Amino acid sequence: MQNKISIQSVGDSKTTTTSWLRLETNMTYYNTNGQVSVRFQWLKNAYYNKEDILAIGLSNNVAPLNNTASFVHKTDTYNPLNMDWREYTENNATLRYHPGGVTAQFNLFSPAMNYRDERGYLSFTVKPRESGKWTLNSFYNTLGYYRHQEKVFSVSPSVSIPIGGLCL
After folding, report:
1. What is the pTM of this model?
2. pLDDT, tens digit, 9 for 90 and up, residues 35-69
3. Using CA atoms, how far apart are residues 61 and 134, in angstroms rounded to an integer?
4. Residue 23's CB: how many other CB atoms inside 10 A?
5. Nearest alpha-carbon partner for 147 in 46, 51, 43
6. Which residues are CB-contacts of 46 (< 8 A; sequence separation ≥ 6)?
7. Distance set, CA 75 to CA 45, 58, 109 (Å)
8. Strands (DSSP E) along the chain, which ranges?
């Protein structure tokens, strides 16, 4: 995986945009728990549609709650019969919980027809690691992360001569 983008939010939300992707990280803290989320949107169609990763990392004093993560992946596809765009949704990511956050591994769309506006959303519930409540003295942050897999080919010609030279 070559292309990657990350964004750190220390406030309510933060957005960053590159030439190919927009990534938005949000965090909301309630009395004893909170909700963190990250949303991606492709700004152009991906040229390699294999497994990508969308993730949320947390600071040391924030913990993810197991079995609370949700992921949705959407695109709009063109229907030539009706000459209109229709939303297509999938929820088939592999979710993995880590002490520092959650990752979603998924395949980008590769439809037979035209598509646009590929986007996705990952969210889960968090809690403070210490004292059971958020405190004003602590620093809480959330890191949204996207990684896009690319094909990379490298050719390097070489010659190998075994020890002892050549046998004729």
Report:
1. 0.80
2. 999 999 999 887 777 789 999 999 888 899 999 99
3. 9
4. 20
5. 51
6. 20, 108, 118, 148
7. 11, 28, 8
8. 3-9, 13-17, 21-29, 34-42, 51-58, 62-64, 70-79, 84-90, 94-98, 101-107, 115-128, 142-148
